[in-house]
Amino acid sequence: MSVDAAVAAGRLAAESRMTSRCTVRRKTGASAVVDGFKVAAWAVVHADLPVRVGGASRGANPARRDDLGSGEVEVAVRTAHFPYSTADLADSDYVEVTSGENAGLVVRIVEATWQDQATARRVPVVSVVRPEEWT
């Protein structure tokens, strides 16, 4: 089997395991008024996108340090798997799992980098609180 055929088969297998669905949102830099409060405006980048939320990638540090201003905390880093064909993911995008085992989970993409010959778009994510302005 050629490398191209093996990678294509791997991509089909990986996507078949993405049984959850999600919505990916990005802050637009604009603001909106919701219930009399000025809040960040969000754009939907992807809707009803297949996703699988896994643990940390092998060999990766399962935690990272975040600065809260008043001190540093260590937060768990997980991995979100998207279909390989998924484009336009960016650092700091928010992903809301809308159906599946982790329905209701909201995570932020830490780093949206790509790799060659991958079977899925795998990005490190950290849990965040669901923004109140999302309806």
From TrEMBL:
InterPro entries: DUF6093
Domain of life assignment: Bacteria
Pfam families the record matches: DUF6093
Protein name: Uncharacterized protein
Organism: Nocardioides aromaticivorans
